[in-house]
Amino acid sequence: MRIQKLIIPVAASAAGLALSGNAMADEWKMALGDAAGGTQYELGTTFAELIEEKTDGEVTVKLFPNGQLGSEQDTVNNASMGLLDLSVLAINNITPFSPTVGVMTLPYVIQGPEDARTLTQGEVGEELTQNTIRDAGVRILGWAYSGCRRLTNSARPVASPADLDGLNIRVPKNEIMISAYQAWGVNPSPLAWSETFTALQQGVVDGQDNPYITIDAMKFYEVQDYVTDSCYVFSLEPLIISEGKFQSLSPETQELVLEAGQEATKHSYDYLIETEADIKHRLTEEHGMEIIQPANDEQEWIDLATGIWPDFYDSIGGKEKLDEVLAALGREPAPAE
């Protein structure tokens, strides 16, 4: 049965307390980088409903979308210092704090939703959770599955890396993603997420990449005309909790929090599978975007981008870590340096 979403206010109001009849309820703040309507919000509202239900209203969660509580990287710092309870953020924004998580952002390691689920809900995901506790002082409770990052631009159809010539593409401030574009022959512009729409609108950059659901939620169709149906990175967005906050909870409440994270993760996966095709159709039929298939089944993109893997073996914990991930997916080991 699909979980009914909560309607949670953006600004502070008495409605936040209406989630529970318990006047002594502990209200937690959750930061979201994205707007309402995307997978971050879907995961957040689902977790909020679950934790309120499981704690009989003793814990409620208020969501703050659109980066109201700071940039996604700021929220990692604030959670680690105990200044923020929860955050849902793009995986590339936690990688600077816990570099081994970067194995999930190497181009073409994750090639679809099933790969993403296998890794995040298995031994690899558990190891990355322990690493983020150690490295960043935050704990991954769950995952939002947003889908493959699709290249969009306002200039022309792009089917091959050569078509990128002369285009200025926004990327996150993430060395792996920057290197992937450099391998395709362009020098991308690293911009904060909060600056991206304005940069596209003003023509400072020509394009960006994000999943269909994010393109829709952020209304990029207003400033972008073309979508390349690529899948160089699968967009994962962990739900993190301050480890200090987590350790302050009773063992019983800790277990409930973990259960809520697991159930919200499952819901996020189902939500992606159920909605992505409809969103893709809406972008083309209602908003006029043109979808272009990558040339030669994306092979040139793959060959060039996977060539950067050895450059990041050290930062992700060694080639053997990548080989473990590939083995979990039933694939061959990575090439030697």
UniProtKB/TrEMBL annotation:
A biological process from GO: transmembrane transport
Pfam family, one: DctP
Signal peptide per UniProt: 1-25
Keywords: Receptor, Signal, Transport
Gene Ontology CC: outer membrane-bounded periplasmic space
Gene3D superfamilies per the UniProt record, alphabetical: Bacterial extracellular solute-binding protein, family 7
Alphabetical list of InterPro entries matching this protein: DctP_fam, TRAP_DctP, TRAP_DctP_sf
Statement: the UniProt record of this protein carries the keyword Signal: yes
NCBIfam families, alphabetized: dctP, TRAP_S1
Family: Belongs to the bacterial solute-binding protein 7 family.
Protein's recorded name: Tripartite ATP-independent transporter DctP family solute receptor
Species assigned in the record: Halomonas organivorans
